[in-house]
Give the backbone structure.
Amino acid sequence: MLVNLNEVPANTDRKNYDVCIAGAGFAGISLALKLESYGFDVLLLEGGDIEYSDESQAVYEGQNIGMSYFDLDAARLRYLGGTSNHWAGWCRPLDEWDFAKHDHIPDSGWPITKSELDSYLGAASEFLEIDVEYPDSLLENSKGLLKKIHFEVKPPVRLAEKYHDYFERSDKIDLFINANLVDIKLTDSTQAVSAFECANFANPATKFNFSAKFFVLAMGGIEIPRLMLNFTNQNPKGIGNSNDLVGRYFMEHFHAFGGWYVTEKGKWPFDEKESHLAPTPQFLSEQKIANAGMRIGSFSVADDKTLYEQVKQVICEQDLIRTFVSNFRNINCVVGSQPDSGGPILIASEQVPNRNSRVSLSDSQDKFGHRRAVLDWQITDLDRDTIKRSTIGFGQYFAEQDYGNVKLIDWMLDDTTAVPGVDEDLWLGAGWHHMGTTRMSETSATGVVDKNCRVFDTENLFIAGSSVFPTGGHANPTLTIVQLSLKLGDHLRDKLQSS
């Protein structure tokens, strides 16, 4: 059943659900469908409407005070389907390396193993409409230091389009749109949740209470901590924040422009126009860096253009390309004597956990009286080293194999130069992947949720999504989000069957 909360009469509460989920994106919808398959009654709350609206999107407005970053209301979407509405479709599981603790990466290590998620790869892939196989292989002659990796890149599934009619017909999932979570009601002992309190846009002062046996927050890595920090009526520090960890450890995936390569005719070493490489665990351990992936693009030269002209037209307006290409083995940049191909080196790298990179609250309030998010995105020397050493590793391999030459972007070669932000010409980009702000851990001293995604301070409140990632690897998070949600579905099934 699909219900618009804007049209529901006041004082209409809903009770007796098995599970109530706030957030109808990848995490919330995949979890709801999993629970429905077991025959449970599920309430799914979406703060926005079926389609985009300025009124709903305005709730996501916030402030950036750290490294330059995208406007917070531009990096997320607040309507049915969530980030699936602007998802590009890139998928890859996390590596086994990503789950392990590493001495050179503070606060690393998951309390679960990769194998615990592997059993959900097939179901998650079916949900995302992608293939299951990821045929990675060591890169020839790389001394075991580099590997070719595979990303599944299919036309992205749009969850609102796919499931709108399904939810209208469902007799096990009640989807409420324009249902904005405005408080989490706790029992008198504050050890459990008794209800999610919601409000609509038509009359924000009117409150609706939804009760269930178990409750799940699935609203993304910025919105979940923002609301948990706002809900202080019964816990002055906020929900799940007894150890001041909610909102901390904000992580992104850096998408850095690393430089350019050029090759001579016949020396392009890969079959694809774009190849994906990554350092091996041996490389990561020897260099003492975090995980990263390299996206190596290829541009063949048209007959009527120089390499410089073509690359400049396609990619950017930076004059460093002219100098680099014209000096490549003393070849002038003229038709008939230029290298055969060239292209950009792009690095997608992990950000290591950093408790000072965080989401907190401003004094400005949204439509429902909640303080808005403040993002203080910070990077460390280890983040910079990961980008730099991964790129240099590729350049060394390229040179050793006599494939051509590589020119790194200037800031990577000068440790005194500040890392450029996302709004600068030669920028350090980001993936709009918000991770780590309610991190999973063995104990409440080092995390917000346990290995089953339960908030430590409560008995029946869980979190679904990338905010629980202790570390992020370099792979896009969507596939792992769905795997974790399906795992959570099985855990809640066991809890419900035993209660």
